[in-house]
Amino acid sequence: MLLNETIFPLGNVSEEVSKHALADMTDPYAHDPKRHKVLYVHTEKPFNGEPPAGLLIEQFYTPNDIFYVRNHLPVPEVDLETYELEVEIENIDKIKKLNFADILKLPKYTVSATLMCAGNRRSEMNKVKEVKGLNWGASSIGNATWTGVRLVDVLKLIGVDDNTKEYSHVHFEGLDRDTASNLYTVSIPLSKAVNKDGDVLLAYEMNGQPISRDHGFPIRVIVPGTVGARNVKWLGRILIAKDECQSHWQQKDYKGVPPSADPSRINLSKLASIQDLPVISAICKPSNEEVVKVENGFITVKGYAWSGGGRKIIRVDLTTDGGKEWHVANFDHQIDHESPRHWSWTLWTAKVPVSKGQKTVEVWAKAIDSSYNSQPDTIDNIWNYRGFLNNAYHRIRVNLTF
Ligand code: MTE
Ligand code: MO
Predict the structure, then answer these.
(1) What domain range includes position 91?
(2) Same domain membership, residue 260 and residue 113
């Protein structure tokens, strides 16, 4: 329910309280949850925040309260007692409605998967040339176990499976809405949804805890290997359709735009929506400009690497001399799943050499996935005005002490 739809009993409260309450009533964000103070806040309303990169990679499973939050709208207030998920097929009147208890009755399934925003590492692109979007560092990514029911099991209830040929897309509608009551809605290809190896989940737990309000309470979609934007939070409705979703979020946002596109002339609807994500890595420790102690001619660097589409990371390479010599990182944690169902990130550590007397050093990292995709070396040739998909080599400069 929208806050400004509520009738406030002015007569029952002191003037001071009512003024405060009135201010809150006009603020659709007044009922947003509290957030962990380590999150670096990009915008407060809607809330967008990410943890410090060094903290992010301390654990393989990102603690729920420091997991990046990317909200487009106020966090909806959902009551479990009245919650209902609608499942529908386009132009067919029969609507299947599932309440929370119905969903709990379906087989329970857990998937370990990394979620990443298409704008992760946008701030580096912004430094090359100004881009449009939240200025994310390298931490709009996190890894968690997600527990819930398989989308394939829910779709079976309405007779949709991998034999379904008349429809090609699954729309997911969130319960969060803007002031014009537009809901957050996007879609994924039906082929991903009905593929039992696609592991698409309607999750009600994150790292073994009920999903928090910021992350989509009570149910969110997890589309492993696919851009964060399709992992719809506060899921209210699923629609099987012939065409892609026509919402702003599907048609005008989350599109990979060409480097030289003119924002005023480009027809975004004609471009392919971002679905599977490309291979990426980041050095999280030390951070850029940090002072690092050299030990026996080496410094230690740590980070993450991940690829979309279920591709496993097979190697992470680092250089401290602009690419003359590359050093292979050790994996600290990688799940033993094979491609194309490898959904979680890989955490790595590398000891890389520096020369005696060197005051600063630039360290570059690149990852290689199971399709032997590697990262582009510079941002220059992938720059785009929306700052999406920055997966260029991650480069940091650190100051050395001996
Ligand atoms: N779902 C709804 N309903 N509303 C949203 O604003 N943001 C999307 C996606 N799902 C969003 C949403 C985007 S762009 C990302 S990157 C992820 O949720 C972020 O999920 P998180 O906040 O749990 O990290
Ligand atoms: Mo995102």
Answers:
(1) 69-270
(2) yes
